[in-house]
Design brief:
Oligomer: single chain
Strand content: under 5%
Number of strands: 0
Number of domains: 3
Number of helices: 19
Order of helices and strands: HHHHHHHHHHHHHHHHHHH
């Protein structure tokens, strides 16, 4: 999807609202305990909540209020284990992250709640657990719960206010009308189970390699293996994301080294970290490499540059990032692999099913929302296929990226027809033909082009 000015400004507004919520939560956490751990947890939870959109409806807020405190407390316990019993802590870490992926099989609402499980655990990779010295044991135990509820409160408050002021668009809540019915997967094991197993293998290998060969900086390997494998949308997606992760992390570390060469106060370092987080939130919808760049910069500033030289640290960190990326890609490609073209075909089929439902004259509540949301899911896997098309155009005749472009070309005319309640029989027939073509990759492109022509 081309990057438009409206998309850039929309992402900027989202980033500002999310960052305001993060800052409010962070200052509350620092008021309770002026140590870095709770403040970092506050920022990560606000970013996670804003992306999960659980704060956008009442049911989601209830789920978040129940999920976040328990998960944050569990992450605190795992952080303590990683400090005092590293191998046992690693085992619980792997189980928790894999469980959050396996939960995707239970539908979109549980999937959104499951997405909240991962990031509190990631916090303990960026800021390892340190026993608190400025608060009592009871406060230390309750602090993760308090920070989680504060994050939910501030994110909800700022997003509701922004939508009330029409600074952000109204929320599209997933419901029975806009959601396409879930279809039973023919894959065995199902995709969520495969991806959970892949993540478990990747994290296990990353912990072993990190503990054995990189005792002081193992967290970079584990963090990269997690980032590369999270949101797995097939083998090609993981490989594409790993390249962006390595490139973005490399550039981010170079920027951090530039700052390391100058005397920078603690206050200025914190300001630079927050600015990097904001830029990452803003530019992430425009490209994953931006997120990798600015998050790596923030982490590098957070963890500092202890040691003999900044150049040596650069070499070590890039080496560990590359190792983590290799581990993540290897797990995705060789452990119960999921074919990216299979994922894309399923999502295109879902979009066509939503279009057929919206064009059905017997559907009294038809509308374009389900079709638009389904195309959005198709677009989320498109970047990897478009990158592949650039590299394989000369020798590969069937390009799945062309299927995406052909489907997107149908979006605006389809919305116009649906909103005007126009349902010509020739169009419904073309939709049916396109749905049947999903079984034969060589027929998909022509069927989608015929569908677009039928909308004229």
């Amino acid at each position: 999807m081309p990057i438009t000015t409206s998309k850039i400004f929309q992402a900027l507004r989202e980033a500002i609202v999310t960052m305001l919520a993060a800052l409010a939560t962070m200052f509350c956490a620092l008021t309770i305990d002026p140590e870095p751990g709770p403040a970092i947890l506050a920022i990560v939870l606000c970013v996670s909540l804003s992306r999960s959109q659980l704060d956008r409806d009442r049911r989601g807020r209830i789920e978040a209020a129940l999920t976040l405190p328990a998960v944050s407390l569990a992450a605190l316990a795992v952080g303590m284990l990683l400090l005092h019993a590293p191998w046992l802590g690693a085992a619980f870490f792997v189980i928790a992250i894999s469980l959050s992926i396996w939960l995707r099989r239970f539908g979109p609402l549980v999937r959104r709640a499951g997405s909240l499980i991962a990031l509190p655990f990631v916090v303990i990779l960026t800021t390892p657990y340190v026993p608190p010295t400025r608060v009592g044991p009871t406060t230390a135990l309750l602090l993760p719960i308090i920070v989680a509820l504060l994050a939910l409160f501030w994110v909800t408050l700022f997003h509701l206010g922004a939508r009330r002021l029409r600074w952000l668009p109204p929320t599209r809540v997933l419901n029975d009308v806009t959601a396409s019915p879930a279809r039973a997967s023919s894959m065995r094991p199902v995709a969520s189970t495969r991806m959970a197993v892949q993540m478990a293998v990747a994290l296990t290998v990353a912990f072993v390699v990190g503990y054995v060969f990189f005792a002081d900086r193992w967290a970079w390997i584990v963090l990269t293996a997690f980032i590369v494998g999270s949101g797995n949308q097939g083998r090609l997606d993981v490989a594409y994301k790993s390249v962006l992760r390595v490139v973005g992390a490399g550039v981010g570390t170079l920027f951090a080294l530039a700052f390391a060469g100058h005397a920078v106060s603690d206050t200025a370092t914190v300001e630079l970290m927050l600015a990097a987080v904001f830029m990452g939130i803003w530019l992430r919808p425009l490209g994953y490499a931006w997120w990798a760049l600015f998050v790596t910069l923030a982490l590098a500033l957070l963890q500092g540059f202890e040691g003999p030289s900044a150049g040596q640290i650069l070499s070590l960190r890039l080496e560990e990032i590359v190792i983590g990326a290799i581990v993540g890609v290897a797990a995705a490609w060789f452990v119960l692999p999921v074919r990216s073209t299979g994922v894309l075909r399923v999502r295109i089929a879902d979009a066509l099913a939503a279009l057929a439902d919206a064009l059905d004259p017997a559907n009294a509540q038809r509308g374009p929302d389900g079709f638009v949301m389904a195309i959005g899911r198709v677009e989320s896997v498109a970047p990897a296929f478009r990158a592949s098309r650039l590299l394989t155009r000369r020798w590969r005749t069937v390009q799945p990226a062309d299927w995406v472009d052909a489907l997107i070309a149908c979006r605006d005319p389809a919305i116009s027809l649906i909103e005007n309640s126009e349902t010509p029989g020739s169009l419904r027939k073309a939709v049916g033909t396109a749905r049947k073509a999903m079984r034969e990759p060589q027929d998909i492109q022509q069927a989608l082009q015929d569908l677009r022509r039928a909308m004229v």
